[in-house]
Design a protein that fits this description.
Blueprint: H1 2-18, H2 43-69, H3 80-91, H4 94-127, H5 129-144, H6 151-158, H7 162-186, H8 190-198, H9 203-214, H10 216-240, H11 249-258, H12 262-293
Helix pairs in contact: 1-9, 3-12, 4-5, 4-7, 4-10, 4-11, 5-7, 6-7, 7-10, 10-11, 10-12, 11-12
């Protein structure tokens, strides 16, 4: 019982070390903090995040309209008014929303499997030196492999099914998850690891209370990169693997391309871009929260 109590106390101590935000600042350190900080969901903070994106969108639309007014390949590049009218019309029908639902379900399933597999591989490779020597470069090589190169193999293995698309998503994004965790573990101070072993933490407890909290920023960065690879793999898969009765976003884009309907094609591309931006904002918010809790950002700007 005494040994278990010592391990519990050691875990709590190391968790405090690995997560600096858990420790209260005292003494002169408090003088560095402002007396009042704004709520993260205040109107001012929301506007500070939104207005640069609105400005960027406005600039893109402005340049787009100027190019359209020059009549440069207007049969290929319709104006913003035509495209947004087409997008609004598609939003009035259930097919677009059904396509978004199917695509996002595939993305969530594929990404969840990638996180699970990548985290397990990263945890094993980062702590087992022979395994790292054998597979470390292979993980990086798979990360640089174009996802579209996997589709012939995936289609032969699974046929033209959703499983083929998810298979390629996992192959495209799991290496980024693994590399993110491996990098995070590499940057943990050796003294902290030795302290954990000295306090009697087992391998599982060491990962739970020390390694995972300390490597969290790098792991989240790896997740963000993995999502980008997963999204690109998914879009490539939906363009190549058309499944009857499942009107995905890729299938709608492919149909618009076959019909030379550029207004519809660009409208679908805007939907793809918007979904990607929304998910990127979620990851950026998670990264900002982690950095703020670890004292890596100025509280006055939060």
């Amino acid at each position: 019982m005494a040994r278990l109590g010592n391990r519990s106390a050691a875990a709590e101590a190391l968790a405090t070390i690995a997560q600096p935000e858990a420790a209260a600042l005292t003494g002169l350190d408090n003088l560095d903090l402002p007396a009042i900080s704004r709520h993260p969901w205040s109107a001012r903070n929301i506007w500070a995040v939104v207005w640069p994106k609105l400005l960027a969108v406005g600039l893109v639309i402005g340049v787009w309209e100027l190019v359209h007014l020059t009549h440069w390949k207007e049969y290929v590049l319709p104006g913003p008014g035509t495209v947004f009218a087409n997008l609004w019309e598609q939003m009035q029908h259930a097919q677009l929303w059904q396509a978004i639902d199917i695509t996002m379900r595939r993305a969530v399933i594929g990404f969840a499997l990638s996180v699970l597999i990548g985290a397990v591989i990263g945890a094993l490779v980062s702590r087992i030196k022979p395994l790292r020597a054998a597979t470390g470069s292979l993980i990086t090589a798979m990360q640089t492999m174009p996802s579209i190169a996997w589709f012939p193999f995936a289609i032969i293995l699974f046929g033209a099914t959703t499983n083929a698309i998810i298979f390629v998503i996992v192959l495209g994004s799991a290496p980024s998850v693994a590399n993110g965790l491996i990098t995070g573990v590499d940057y943990i101070p050796p003294l902290l690891l030795r302290a954990g072993k000295t306090m009697g933490l087992s391998r599982v407890a060491l990962y739970r209370h020390l390694i995972m909290p300390a490597s969290l920023p790098s792991f989240v960065s790896g997740l963000k990169q993995a999502w980008a690879f997963a999204w690109r793999s998914l879009m490539a898969g939906e363009l190549l693997v058309i499944i009857l009765g499942q009107p995905s976003i890729g299938a709608l884009l492919s149909a618009a391309q076959d019909q030379s309907d550029m207004a519809s094609a660009i409208a679908i591309m805007i939907v793809i871009l918007a979904l990607g931006i929304i998910i990127d904002m979620v990851f950026s918010k998670a990264d900002a929260v982690i950095r703020r809790r670890r004292g890596m950002t100025d509280p006055a700007s939060a």
